[in-house]
Design a protein that fits this description.
Helix content is 35%, strand content 12%. With 222 residues, it is an alpha+beta fold.
Length: 222
């Protein structure tokens, strides 16, 4: 009987060290333009890897660096440190002006999601045109959510990870609160909290083609 059989390794598929897993995640995130979920990271890495644990170590390692590891919803992405954003000013940025109706609709969805079209119209006090919703869907800042368990099963709207990533937010919980909006002059002090942040009447404005004032767009434009 061969004694070498006793020397067989316990596992032929040992997981890489945590340091090696960090390197793998670092490579994946640097090569990816879009945020990557932990599930996708684990699917790409060798058997036995723990992407969640490796991300904790990797995030600490990037603290204070020029590039930071940022969580966007349930995914992760590498981004330039917020305080160094001024260095990117030479990049060409496509500016798309949004109507006041689109800005208010987006704000209501962000703060009240999941929200139906009828609920948006109730908060704003005016009807929401199809063009306004189509613009936000085209920009991939909102998407369709689950249908509500109410008569007619109306579809709801929620913001996307693209929206969170654009504004540097981990989740909608990081949106500025009522006090911050009023302090920044982005919310009329006369409006009730239930109508925040952009509810109002458009009696003197049409739904489409209205270019918002600068103080109204500050929250939603870089």
């Amino acid at each position: 009987m061969n004694d070498d059989a006793d020397n067989t390794p316990q596992s032929l598929f040992q997981a890489p060290t945590i340091g090696e897993q960090e390197r793998m995640i670092e490579a994946i995130l640097f090569a990816s333009a879009d945020p990557v979920t932990i599930r996708d990271l684990n699917a790409r890495m060798p058997h036995g890897s723990d992407a969640a644990e490796a991300l904790v170590h990797l995030r600490k390692r990037y603290e204070g660096r020029g590039v930071t590891l940022m969580r966007v919803g349930d995914a992760w992405v590498m981004r330039t440190a917020p305080d160094l954003g001024f260095l990117m000013q030479r990049e060409t940025v496509e500016t798309r002006k949004m109507s006041r109706a689109a800005i208010e609709t987006l704000a209501i969805i962000a703060y009240h999601q999941p929200v139906t079209r009828a609920e948006i119209e109730e908060i704003r006090g005016v009807s929401v045109s199809r063009g306004t919703v189509d613009q936000l869907l085209e920009m991939e800042w909102i998407r369709f959510g689950r249908r509500k368990m109410t008569p007619g099963r109306p579809v709801t709207f929620v913001v996307t990870e693209t929206f969170l990533s654009h504004f540097g937010l981990e989740s909608v919980r990081d949106l500025p609160g009522l006090k911050e909006l009023r302090a920044a002059g982005l919310l009329d002090n006369r409006l009730p909290p239930s109508s925040m942040p952009g509810a109002g009447s458009d009696d003197d404005e049409s739904e489409e083609g209205v270019v918002p004032d600068e103080d109204q767009t500050e929250l939603f434009e870089e």
